[in-house]
Amino acid sequence: MASRRSLVRRAVALATAATAAVVLAACGSSSDSSSSSPAPARSGHDTGATHASGTASQGSHDPQDVSFAQGMIPHHRQAVAMADLAASRAKSPQVKDLAATIKQAQDPEINTMSGWLEAWGEKVPGDSKSSMPGMDGMDGMPGMDRSASPMPGMMSDQDMGKLKGLSGDAFDKAFLRMMISHHQGAIEMAETEQSRGAYGPAKAMAKSIVTSQSAEITEMNKMLGKQ
């Protein structure tokens, strides 16, 4: 009788072990299939995020993209220099607010475009220093004449000197008129980039410039009493 009970216990133990083995094998198979399955493909937005931070890959741009960045950087710098003058010379709170908005928008774009040029192995304007803020780094660039407007909408040294000597209502009017012209030049440059450029982030920035600066021109015209 004892011998029979012993045999039964052994049979139960073997059955339990066999069941456990089957369960473990199934789990192992599920785990293996999960670990061996291919990882999800990375979205193309990963590359875009890299570009947005100011870097760019070789071969993804054309000469127009380089020209756009090299021209828009000093163009933006001059707008920022004009905006800096408004902080202490403007009388109208609306003019001061607009100037702050312009600086807040264009400073980061300067950094982004500088990153593109560095990644492309191209010259970043602004390495040299000059007496007029916003005009540095423009000497030696094609078509750059510091005695006159070197590109669409750019103020000459004389224009900037005149603006620097104004304050109050006189400054406000001169600032608005000059900035309207400056924005119109930037829009012209941005539209060229939109039609001829190849680098996606540069074309996207150009589109943003056209949209935002067109709206600011409308706002500035209203400040000047123009409808």
Give the secondary structure arrangement, pairings included:
Layout: H1 2-36, H2 45-52, H3 63-89, H4 93-120, H5 157-164, H6 168-196, H7 200-223
Helix pairs in contact: 3-4, 3-6, 4-7, 6-7
Largest sheet: none
Secondary-structure class: mainly alpha
Terminal Cα span: 111 Å
Secondary-structure element string: HHHHHHH
Strand content: under 5%
Give the radius of gyration: 32 Å
Number of strands: 0
**Level-1 CATH class name:** Mainly Alpha
CATH homologous superfamily, by name? Answer: Ferritin, core subunit, four-helix bundle
The number of domains is 1
Q: Uncertain segments of ≥5 residues (pLDDT<50)? A: 1-53, 127-149
Into which percent range does the helicity of residues fall? over 70%
Instruction: Name the shape in a single word.
Output: elongated
CATH architecture: Up-down Bundle
Mean pLDDT: 76
**Number of discrete helical segments:** 7
Which fold does the CATH topology refer to?
Ferritin
Structure explained in plain terms:
With 227 residues, the protein is mostly helical. The protein has a single domain, classed as Up-down Bundle (Ferritin), CATH 1.20.1260. Helices cover 70% and strands 0% of the residues. α3 packs antiparallel against α4 and α6 runs antiparallel to α7. The longest helix is centred in the first third of the chain and has 35 residues. It is elongated. It starts with a helix and ends with a helix.
